[in-house]
# Entry
Amino acid sequence: MTVLVPAHGRLRALGRRLRGVRPDWLPSFRARIEWVTHWSPEWLPPGDVIVATAWQSAPIVAAAPAPAGRKFYLVQHYESLYHGDATTVDATYRLPLQTIVISTWLRDVLRERFGRDAEILVTPVDRALFHPVAAEAGTMRPRVLMLHHDYAWKGVPDGLEAIARVKNTVPSVCLVGFGVKPPRERDRYDEFHENPAQDRLAALYSSADIYLCPSWDEGLGMPPMEAMACGAALVTYDNGGCRDYARDGETALVARRRDVGDLAVKLERMVRDDALRRALAAAGQKLVTTAFDWDRAVERMEKIFTG
# Structure
């Protein structure tokens, strides 16, 4: 198997240096990686199904010759918001491709903005990886875990502001951060885990009492779901994708989108009310580990592919 990766300039030079390097998160990966300057439909071999997974590959799939297979578009975010020129990205949602989305919110976006219907296939949590495990945490409680990311729409400044407001009244709150890269202002976190290994994430999630998700928009949001599967209670903005698993007052506390004051109020309520926190954590864990299942998702995708 060969994986073609488009790249230009410095990225192409980097690809030459990385030739033969395999992703450490996928130890069984044996494909040959070939870095190319452009996509071409003629490279696509005959097959039964061909799937675009992002706006960049959607036009290639649409232009693929018929022997390449039935054409699908797996939409994992409304990428027009943040990933590329909005007009160019929007055009991909009008292409003659059968569409699959990973959340109800994305189905609604495509229906309302483009008059397109789509199959909903919510991505399940990998329960073999994400489940409660013994985790030592020598800090004060409650521990609030938050993903640190440089993308503005991940809402990290909002999360930091909400935490700061809660700490004014509950100084014992411990903010635990994690992310691929450390923050410039590391002292905003009481504890930070840089680029934790995949097999360490369950312990990190399990050490948290609360998972805070201040993202403005999410196609679905896997880290909150993974944290819920490990027993953390969720406080989140209403970011769209979370609506399939974050039900305010039932499985999570959900704040109005980009309303830092409301986010802080919801977070403080979760911090102060132990009984509520335990109840929502239990309900959230049950939902994400039973409503969405890998075997059922695979069977459903097979049925969609075969029509």
The chain has ten helices and twelve strands. The chain has a mean pLDDT of 91. Residues 124 and 306 are 21 Å apart (CA to CA).
